[in-house]
Amino acid sequence: MLTLHRINPHLVWLGHAVADYHQICDVRGDILIGVSKTFYIETFGCQMNAHDSEKVIGTLEHEGYIQVSDEAEAGLILYNTCSIRDKAEQKVFHRLNEYKRMQGEGKQFGVLGCVAQQEGERIFERAPYVSLVAGSASYRNLPQMIARLEAGENRITGLDDRQTDQTFDTEFTARSNPHRGYITIIEGCDKFCAYCVVPYTRGKERSRTSASVLVEARRMADQGFTDIQLLGQNVNSWRDPSGRLSFAELLTAVGNISGIRRVRFTTSHPRDFTLDIVEAIDATPTLCDHIHLPVQSGSSSMLRAMSREYTRDWYLERMSWIHAAKRDISITSDMIVGFPGETDADFEQTITLLGAVRYDAVFAFKFSPRPNTPAVGMPDTISDELKTERLRILNDRQREIQREHYARHLGQTVEVMIESHNPARGQIVGRSTQNKTVNFTLEPGVPDPPIGSYLPIHITRTMPNCLIGEAIAGSIPSQTTPKAQPFVVLN
Ligand code: 5AD
Ligand code: SF4
């Protein structure tokens, strides 16, 4: 018996399997297809990877495959990989070693994503049972690659590198959350920061037209999605190939779609961050009060060495635009400690920047040398002990800042979108427009609000990483009408 993770909502799973022949019927009871094609996919890394997997799943389902949640039940095992830091890459090879035990079982293996692009055919040498190695810039050719797999080929590559001008637009996206969904608006990266592998693994910057983004957003709104996150490695470097809209205008246009209540965008690059983005957020209530603007370092000389092409002051000017906004816009960032040549004085500049900006969250990483990047060969490397120490100091300081800064929400009423129920703690978990987790309780006897609904919450306590509150009496919706199926294939 198969445990199905998800199936196309237009189909009804009959719940039985004879050997590896699974019958699927349509809603009228007619047998549509007899398939023995099952796949398992595991995803590592960023939101771009998570959303790529949703598109890969949708594409495979369109090709007649069924996703299963246990690799033992899968004919095809896919691994969507991340190589942003060495640790992430090591995980891939560790996992591939585990696959080894299954190689005699007639299964096929594929490695997708950034490690696939970075390592290319070397993966076949390290793991000869792998049949498919494909980077994200080649996913538009996935149906052809899958057909070749089915024909028994066993060294198929999709390694487009920086050649392609095309984006991976597919109608067949299997979104795993019926309320909140991603839309990729720009793929790849042309910035070539000295530490970063992404320009080598995800290809050159390619933007989708505003028309195709808006069609996808409207379709999602029609299906009941209320929260849309626009995605790109540098989302605000998006340039409309049709020349119609600026990035800020695109945000506003998505925010004005009927039914959409929240629009987020990630990740932004300071170099392309313009004042009209802040003005758009101020003017459009559906644009979330949150900007993730990675600074990487507070030291101008480190920023120069990293090829970020802005200075501390230039970055702080963008922060002053956000601080001057009418809305309380939450700011978050990524930072790297221990980049080659980082002195105590440079690191101190990063620490003082934390206080100057007052971020609501910082994702800090120890510098990890990556293949092909200019930073690999840079002198003055920092010891791992010193990197660990700087990371600890940074995280401790940031925690202090968050403890103080989150206190501004005490006594406020914050609208949350319900994400999950935590019966063990008697709490419900929601998310605010600022992307903060809000854990709250209901009055006794009040039924749990449905996942995906929105509620005003009175904040009674604040922590460094979350808010705690109580639902406001009488505000619980008796029911919501989520139009979307739990899993949706757009076609
Ligand atoms: N070492 C450490 N952190 C890195 N990042 C990107 N490349 C590296 C690297 N080589 C971090 C940056 C980026 C985030 C996604 O990962 O902070 O913003
Ligand atoms: Fe990497 Fe820099 Fe591109 Fe971001 S902007 S993906 S850090 S090269």
Could you describe the 3D structure shown?
The chain has 491 residues and is of the alpha/beta class. It has three domains: 4-158, 3-Layer(aba) Sandwich (Rossmann fold); 174-405, tm_1862 like domain (pyruvate-formate lyase- activating enzyme, Alpha-Beta Horseshoe); 410-471, Nucleic acid-binding proteins (OB fold (Dihydrolipoamide Acetyltransferase, E2P)), CATH 2.40.50.140. It is built from 13 helices and 25 strands. The chain has helices at residues 47-62, 86-99, 113-119, 122-126, 142-150, 198-201, 210-222, 247-255, 275-283, 300-305, 312-323, 344-357, 384-406; strands spanning 4-6, 11-18, 21-26, 31-35, 38-43, 66-68, 76-81, 108-112, 130-134, 156-158, 174-175, 180-184, 186-187, 206-207, 227-231, 262-266, 290-292, 330-337, 361-366, 413-422, 427-432, 437-441, 454-462, 466-471, 488-489. The strands form seven sheets. It has a seven-stranded mixed β-sheet with strand order 1-6-5-7-8-9-10, sandwiched between helices. The protein has a five-stranded mixed β-barrel with strand order 20-21-22-24-23. Helix 8 (247-255) packs parallel to helix 9. The longest helix has 23 residues, at 384-406. The chain is globular and about 65 Å long. Mean pLDDT is 88; it is low at 1-35 and 479-491. The structure holds 5'-deoxyadenosine and iron/sulfur cluster (SF4). Iron/sulfur cluster is lined by residues 189, 191-193, 196, 198-199, 233-234, 269.
